[in-house]
Amino acid sequence: MTISEVRFRADYRSHTTSTGPGKSWSNVILSCGKGDFDSFGSTFASNRQSTLTMCFSGSVTWPTLSGNPPTSPDVWGGSTGAYRFPFTTNYAHDGTADLLMEYEFAGGTLANNLAWGTTTSRTYYLDSFGLATDAALPQTTAYIPSTRLDNNSAGVTTRCNDGEHGTTTSGSYIFASAIAYGGKYGVLNYQNKVVFYHYSYFTGYETPTIHAISSAKNDTGVDLNTGCNKLHLVGPMVLVPCSPSRRASTPPDTPATSSG
Question: Is pTM, for the whole model, over 0.70?
Fold first, then answer.
């Protein structure tokens, strides 16, 4: 396999000038060779299992990021091509070992003139995979943003006032999100899985509750004999029983409800 270019893409998140300030380097050197991912460490020389080939050398500028990238995920190389590293010398990878790419950055400056010395780090979030030994970073960021479901959610045409807490425009609600974890994630049970997270508020103070999870809605709702609260889901679903919990911000007169 002949490799002629490397491209990165921005992480899909809401970037700010403090988390994504523009960066420029007077020279960046990219060299390729053979390595071993499972024994990868912080000592560069120890990671090399072959003589490196210098494939790219030149100045590089990354733009200041603001808000989310224009597409999800961002396009490889970035919308302006700022994250492209076109090789001046192609690298022939024979597949007998893992591919090692070693970068050297020199002459770095920040677009906003912030201090950036040898003891000062500045973030810039690119889509990444991470190390097998690092549990904090290597999740693949196929991330479904949190969604709040409540009486004000889009598509809700009938609103419920339970008579104990809230009004027709406020009350119990649930947040739901999901993260896909890659095969090298540090927690074995999470590897190659999509984990669904859901949290509810103002539901069942010191009372067991049930979260119903489905992919289709029911505008009419199913009467569960819980006052005006109904189950607005249809089709196959997962019912998750939740243990009673106590939160200082939850009023003591909050009734048990079903959220979906």
Answer: no
